[in-house]
Amino acid sequence: MEKITDKLTIFFDNPFWAGVFEHIEKNKLSVCKIVFGAEPKDCEVYEFILKNYSKLKFSSEVETDIKAEHSNPKRLQREVRNKIKQSGTSSKSQIALQQQREEMKMERKAYSKQNKELEKQKKFELKQEKRKQKHRGK
After folding, report:
1. CA-closest candidate to residue 32, choices 14, 48, 44
2. Basic and acidic residues compositional bias: what residue ranges (predicted)?
3. Which domain does 20 fall in, by range?
């Protein structure tokens, strides 16, 4: 049986509150970071998930391992308490977020380069047109 896990961690990333969605499917981790601004209430988080989850842009997938579930409820409670004390995200999530940032950076560079080339071509054509007009004596 295949297990799909989604986890949202909300933490204070000075000066804003941020959230990290971690999606694990087929031993692959993908991550998306969002910024809430002010501290979100539970109802606001729930509403955000319902409205915007499908629009979130997750990072490329990173290989990860899945731990077995615990049957001891006291151990599970201790782990939850320890997770609450921790702030931030796991290192694999940070790696996935860094990869996503790099991909977005490359996309922006390619897009801006294409726009610069188009603008340069337009200027060249306008310059050529002006030269033709001058040559005709107009």
Report:
1. 48
2. 69-82, 100-128
3. 4-136
